[in-house]
Here is the input.
Amino acid sequence: MNSYEVVIIGTAVMLIMGIFVIVLVIFQQKQVIQHKLLIRDKDLELQKERLVAILQGQELERKRIAEDLHDEVGAQLSVLKLNLNQLQPLLKTGNGEQEQLKETKEFTDTIIQHLRFISQSLHPQALENLGLSRALDSFCNMMNRNKQVQIHFTEDSNHHDVEPEKALNIYRVVQELINNILKHAQATQVQITYMTTPTLLSIYVVDNGNGQLLHSLENARHKTGSLGLKNIESRLNIIGGTIHYKPGVPAGTIAEIKVENYQHAE
Amino acid sequence: MTNNIKVAIADDHKIFRSGVINTLTPYENINVVFEAEDGVHLLQIMEEQQPDVILMDLKMPNMDGIEATKKVREKYAHVKVIVLTMYEDDNFIVHLIENGANAYLLKNAEPGEIYEAICTTYEKGFYFNENVNLALLKKVMHKTRQQFKPTFRSEVPLTDRELEVLRLICEELTTQQISEKIFLSPRTVEGLRQKLLEKTGAKNIVGLVMYAFRNGLIE
Here is the structure.
């Protein structure tokens, strides 16, 4: 063996060892990255779970307050009205007593009406008893009593059931969307179209406003930290739904909500 | 005046039950025979004695008024049910009437109306006030409108892809633009377009757009 051969073999061995080391390092780094990704996935999962827990807690609390208001205070106010009615034959006449009683009764009715509105906004009773599409229709009826904007609701005749947890989230998304339209879009008319196939639920919310809905939402988010848009996104995220905004024709905004696999829990 | 009408009240709020009883006391032909705290309690008492008319609250523990109304209708066809509730909601009104309620009143109704409703349901079998009439009318009109305006899925089952293409056609996009927008080849878009014409029975794009309009797909 001459020195020439020794050098060649030596170099070869060194090279192989070098390559081996490099491969080892790369392999290890890959493992580190994979581990990090795993941790991040777990973090995201945890975050989602936390969000779901917060939202569920919030809904539970809203439901409790709504029911207390509606059932307890409502019953008491109704009794108040009945009692006022019994005063009627006992009142003296001549000094406007009857008129005053009438005004008081009307005022009681106004309070009851406010109570209904607050309670229904807090928690839609129709959702549990009659399902999502009826609850949305009731929501539109309620908003239309306020006259600020005219909301039309149409649905197809398929009547597929929606999983209750998802139904509540979808209801909240539409509610938030309408609230945002009222605040930002300067619309006079809103059309909500509700359609289902066995696997896909689609809701189109079309307004005839200034088409600035998304823009104003973004602005509000920067200026006041308003969470409207974020709420919509997180709720849809939880139930695996999506929302897309498009400019309407000739004006306004079209929001398209889609939820797949809506008949079963996640 | 009509003869004695036996009335029962099912409501989970004692204060409200007493309020109603006080209100009805002056009317001599009304005889409140019993009170129940919820639907289960009501049906229990009814095994022994049946009233002519029940004033039924909707929101009650154990068994709510919706369920109780159905049960009463099944078992005691002659007993009339007047819903007396806080819920002012067309969908509840329609649902309850469909399930056998004979009248639907709000809890803040005038005592005179409660009395009138009891007498009328007892004599004629139903009492529909303006709230009920409007809710039912809305329902009927909605149904006829749906007959004139068939929805996509019941009449012509379009796939989601086809719906998407139809909507883009209505937005005056060309085949090329559509294919860029939804990431399909122009050939596939053309195929979907053809399929749409076949399925809707339209002869050309104008017919297609008209179809979309009629079915409320675009504004």
Q: What stands out?
A: Chain B has two domains: 5-142, 152-214. Strands of chain B lie at 5-10, 30-36, 53-56, 80-85, 103-106. Chain B touches chain A at residues 11-13, 15-16, 18-20, 22-23, 59, 66, 86-92, 95, 107-108, 110-111, 146, 151-154, 160, 171, 216-219 (CB under 8 Å).
